[in-house]
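During the reporting period, our protein records have gained a C-alpha cell line. A sample record is set out beneath this paragraph:
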Amino acid sequence: MLVVLSSPVYFVFSIRLFKSLDIQIFNNFSSAENINLDWLRKLVYIFGSVWTLLMVVATIHHVFHLFSWIFCTDGISLSLSIFIILIGYYGLKQKELFSFPEKESFILEQKPEKYSGSRLKESEAGLYLEKLNRFMEEEKPYLNPDLNLPQLAKEVEIPSHYLSQVINENIGLNFFDFINRQRVEDVKNKMSDPRYNNFSILGIAFESGFNSKSAFNRVFKNITGITPSEYKKTLSV
C-alpha cells in the first residue's frame, strides 16, 4: 500500500521542486539556454504517469486478481531503467550542471520575508545600487552571454547575497530580467547606431549578449511588447 501511495507523493514533491528550481535559475543566471531542464520535467511527468498507471494495475491485480503480476513488475523495472538511462544521457549533456564556480555558492530561492534578517542597511543598499548601476553602464558585463550572479558579484565587488537583495528589492527584478533588460536596451541602441547598419538583427543580438535567436526574440517581446523586427520598422518611420 505504501508503495502505491509513494508514486503520487513523490510526483507532487517533484512539481514543487521544479517550481523552486525555476526561481533559483532566474535569480542566478542571465541565460537559461544551457540550464534548461524542460527535458527533466517531461521525463518526470511521463515516468510519474507510467508509474501511477502501473501501480493502479498492480492494485487491481491484488484486489480482483486481474491482469498479470509479471506485467506489473516487468513494466515497473523497464520504465525505471529507461528513466535512469535517459537522465544520465541528458544530464551529461547539461553542461551547466557540471560547471558551477568552485568557490561561489548560488543564491537559493529568496522570498521577501527572508530579507527581514539581512544585515544590509538601507544606506548601504543605496551605495551598492549606485555602484552596480555605474558598473553596468561603464563595463557592460551583460555582453557576456554566460554571465551569472556570482560572476557579477565578484566583478562589481559586492557580496552575492547582498547583490541579489539589491536587485530583487531596490530594482524590483530577478537577476535574469535585470541583465536581459540591459541587453534589450543595448540592442535598441545599436539598432539606432549607423555603425551597425550592416548588422542583421540577430547579429546585433549576439553583439549585445544574447546567445540564441529563440531566447532573444522571446525576451525582447516580453520586455517591449513587440518583436525585434517590428521595433526595427519603427525606427525607419
